[in-house]
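Worked example

This section walks through a single chain of length 140. The input is the sequence exactly as stored; nothing has been trimmed or padded.
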Amino acid sequence: LVPRLNAEEIRGLFAPPPWGDDVPLSPFCMTNVGEWDKFRNIDMDKEATFIEAIECSSSKRKVRMDADKMAVLNAWHRVDCRTREALRRSFPSELINGFEVCILAFIKESGDVLVLHVQDPFRRLLLHGVCEFYNLVSVT
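Given that input, the structure is written out below as tokens.
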């Protein structure tokens, strides 16, 4: 039922890698074989020194950041992602400053409840963001 195979076809049946032909190089290995071999065959002591240097430099960067900057970054991360996106798109600084003045005065007076009547939904979103920044509970 099967026609006769010639020598090349028979060789092809029994010569796929790993038995016959060499395995073709991967594209990653063909890019720059010398550099790849340096990476694969690195000395363990050099590797340890390199990793230690990276860890030391990252710890130095962490130390350089002062406490005020960290407090601001932590406060910024408390703000909801939708509010942060709204602030990035449209930043009405005078409105935000006005909200901050009211909220900081409220914090200094240490009152129980601050009521602000804001009808515009976008401004309410910004007001909630400012409250989240100062770690205050806000309810609409």
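What to look for: The first helix runs from residue 7 to 14.
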